[in-house]
């Protein structure tokens, strides 16, 4: 349903930026007749983006992985909620920033305040774009699990699960809890927030991903196939429907 957001995430963001800029530019020619139409149009666009981001974040978590044979690795899909949320932040931030600058031009606001807030909106939009266009979340590699966040990452080698019967389980639809027997092997980089044994499952089914982690933790001989499309297809076809992974 939302697969297209990953494929067209840059055009989506550029389109949102164009809408925000168009709204800002037309501010100089607004009339009493045009103003309500612009507000209604911008409101509808923002409402669609908000509802899409909310639904995707709350309900859309397919049992899917992205094969990256060049790494090699399996990545979780790009989160549609992040893409649509970034588009929403772009339209709102551009319009609000332009409004503050317009107030400064008309003398209704100080230029220092206008520049400060406009700069803040630029930073926030850039932050959202980095989240939407970057590759974050869980990455399964032949040597372990990498959980990538915006400010840091955690790497958990498969050996950290030695002797653990159930290395992963879905703590909630949004996260997976990992049980490690050798925490000293876990490596943390940057300012990665949260517990090192909790990884996010924002963009994929948490039960499915926990099962895949369980599978590879107990089968070292199967890890060489990680990253291949055939292995990805096998995982999804056999366990994408929620069947138990033993």
Automatic annotation (TrEMBL):
Question: Which stretches are transmembrane?
Answer: 12-31, 37-57, 78-98, 110-131
Q: Does the keyword Transmembrane helix apply?
A: yes
Alphabetically sorted, this entry's keywords are: Membrane, Transmembrane, Transmembrane helix
Domain of life assignment: Bacteria
The protein's name in its UniProt record: PH domain-containing protein
**From which organism does this entry originate?**
Actinoplanes utahensis
At the highest ranks, the source species' classification is: Bacteria, Bacillati, Actinomycetota, Actinomycetes, Micromonosporales
């Amino acid at each position: 349903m939302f697969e297209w957001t990953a494929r067209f995430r840059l055009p989506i963001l550029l389109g949102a930026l164009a809408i925000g800029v168009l709204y800002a530019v037309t501010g100089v020619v607004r009339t009493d007749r045009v103003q309500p139409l612009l507000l209604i149009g911008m409101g509808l666009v923002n409402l669609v983006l908000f509802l899409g981001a909310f639904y995707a974040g709350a309900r859309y978590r397919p049992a899917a992985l992205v094969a990256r044979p060049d790494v090699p690795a399996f990545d979780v899909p790009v989160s549609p909620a992040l893409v649509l949320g970034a588009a929403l932040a772009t339209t709102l931030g551009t319009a609000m920033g332009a409004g503050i600058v317009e107030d400064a031009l008309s003398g209704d606001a100080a230029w220092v305040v206008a520049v400060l807030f406009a700069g803040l909106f630029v930073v926030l939009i850039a932050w959202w774009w980095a989240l939407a266009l970057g590759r974050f979340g869980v990455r399964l590699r032949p040597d372990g699990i990498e959980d990538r966040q915006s400010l840091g990452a955690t790497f958990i080698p498969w050996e950290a699960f030695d002797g653990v019967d159930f290395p992963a389980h879905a703590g909630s639809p949004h996260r997976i809890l990992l049980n490690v027997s050798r925490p000293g092997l876990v490596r943390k980089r940057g300012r990665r927030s949260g517990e090192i044994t909790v990884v996010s499952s924002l963009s994929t089914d948490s039960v499915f991903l926990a099962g895949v982690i369980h599978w590879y933790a107990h089968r070292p001989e199967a890890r060489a196939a990680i990253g291949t499309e055939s292995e990805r297809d096998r995982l999804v076809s056999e366990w994408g429907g929620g069947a138990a992974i033993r």
